[in-house]
Amino acid sequence: MSYNLCCVTTMPWGSWEGPAYHIMVELAKRHQVAYIQRLQTGGPLRRLLGRPTLFKGWKPYWGERNLVVHTFVAPVPYATHLLPQRAVPLVAPVIRRVNDALFCRLVRHIVHDGRPARPILWLMDPLSRGLLGTAPWHLTLYHCYDQIAAFPQNQRIAPLIKDEERQIVEKVDLVLAVSQALYGARRAWNPNTHYVPNGADFHHFSQAREETTAIPSDMGCLSHPILGYMGTVDFRMDLELLLGVAQERPQWNIVIVGEARNLGPAWHRLLAQPNVHFLGKKPYPELPCHLKAMDVCLIPWHVDKATAAMYPIKLHEYLAAGKPVVATPIPSLLAFDGVIAVAGEIAEFIEATAHCLAQDSPKQVMQRVKLAQENSWEKRASQIEQIMAEFLSNGREEP
């Protein structure tokens, strides 16, 4: 059965760190997909109002056979950090309603212009409740991939996000949750909630195990052992933990590949260490090359309210490369203890890393690779298709 999926997300197209891109690429092999990226910070309202396409629907800026990407930039930015705190509860809902009114026109245009059969609304944005009434949807689905209200940048509008998300969860037909923490909370609001953890681009990252994959020059010049982290460096990162590891083990090189966002003095203290190397963001095709040079891969995140609901995509990416993994005790990672090393304090983290460096074996490598293969995005997409098919066959009559 083929469907027409309308995926609404705040994740920019091509974002390899989020599930939206990977899952939609897989589903586009069998279904029509409209990927609508909703950017919450945009240009001046007057500039956008001057564009007639704002009311007729944005033309896709990228597309291929079964997948078309649309972009909507919020005309009124959620710049609540510029307002007094007491004004936020009054202003934020107004901003949301203005943006929603214009955004709904875009989605209606996309759906009605194509007149697709069996349109499915796939929400990954907790501030998109207004879309539920924009079309006679064959199925509505909310994909909960993070505890977005717990992010530091969202603290001022956290009550709005929580309220909007709960209303979405209660109204949609199906809910997908990427972690057990998210699953438990959302299932209390909607019994049709399913646990579908994140996966990995197995074939892409397994290139790190191939002899023909070349190690890039910015890592080939470093002495081993090399401890590596790939991904965004933000509020999740326990920078003090990494600093402690760097200072206690100066003979270990620590390499960080990714974009750094809104970091303070702790980040600069870390970069001041001679054995810490920040390479910045790299193109997606180059990531297996950098991964190949790493001896141990790290997930050094804080364990707090935000990360307690996360399921790091990088876990299975590391494992696809066959690399040993040392991580802090994020709840979603505890189930993998034994395949990966889990440690919290600096001394424990160093001990676990030293053990991985000394005890790695071909048998362990294949164990990691097999686990990653079982958690590929292909398998995740098939799992989701089965969930949708079962719901429709049990609760809906096919047209």
Features:
399 residues; alpha/beta; Rossmann fold; 2 domains; 38% helix
Outline the structure in words.
The protein is an alpha/beta fold. The protein folds into two domains: 215 residues, Rossmann fold (3-Layer(aba) Sandwich); 173 residues, Glycogen Phosphorylase B (Rossmann fold), CATH 3.40.50.2000. It contains 15 helices and 14 strands. It has an eight-stranded mixed beta sheet with strand order 3-4-2-1-5-6-7-8, sandwiched between helices. A six-stranded parallel beta sheet has the order 11-10-9-12-13-14, with helices on both faces. Strand 9, helix 9 and strand 10 form a beta-alpha-beta unit. Helix 9 runs parallel beside helix 10. The longest helix has 27 residues. The protein is globular. The N and C termini lie close together (12 Å). About 5% of the residues have low confidence.
Summarize the structure.
This protein has 399 residues and is of the alpha/beta class. The chain has helices at residues 19-27, 45-49, 53-56, 88-114, 158-171, 180-187, 202-205, 217-220, 239-248, 265-271, 287-292, 314-320, 346-359, 362-374, 377-395; strands spanning 4-9, 32-39, 62-63, 67-73, 119-123, 139-144, 174-177, 193-195, 226-230, 253-257, 276-280, 296-299, 325-327, 341-342. It is 38% helix and 16% strand.
